[in-house]
């Protein structure tokens, strides 16, 4: 294996050619589910030659070469694919890998990765600019769909909910403030009852009882790993909650629910309907959903 200390010098000529992907038609590597979805939604999917393991949509992405998990990238493998443009979520890492890519002269563009409508619009703008594409129509469509839900969801009774990231090892790991899950819960007409911390922490039975969530939201694979609804609701920290008494568990595909890419408005609508059991206005069919 080429040592990372000499890698940039050894591959200095790999990126000497113009960055054709910026004008369309070049070789793209996309890292981050929302990044990949946005590139395809902009009509540039045919230029994508590799994606990371979080890029599971659209279906065409599953047939592309994999470059690993976005937080454990191997720069040697990325450089070896000779991309004209690397579009990478700012959540990617480790930092040393990004430093190696920069030192090697890789055509690297970092894409902001926050949650909420303004964040979606910033992602779309950044990706379109990197590709030298006009992202106005895509951004406007996503904004229109998102805002069409504002009034109907605001009219619903706020539902007390928690987002459980994982429960396979006993104590549920739940979302506090300032996470993608927190933003999506609130966007879907729920109140995230965990407000005492940011990020994710284990939930005790005592805290769960005092918070009294009416619903549990999870990624579908996390619910399966926990053993399904029955096993989940037997966990002491959840068994004491109103959500357990009513068996109100909502599980959705994690990338769909939390990527905050072009499908975010549709995910917001689906989550709100499943949480509240209320019909919401249909959104227009979009080619990227």
From TrEMBL:
Q: Where is the Fe/B12 periplasmic-binding domain?
A: 27-279
Q: Which InterPro entries match?
A: ABC_Transporter_SBP (IPR050902), ABC_transptr_periplasmic_BD (IPR002491)
* UniProt cross-references to Pfam families, sorted A to Z: Peripla_BP_2 (PF01497)
The name this protein goes by in its record: ABC transporter substrate-binding protein
Organism listed in the record = Falsiroseomonas algicola
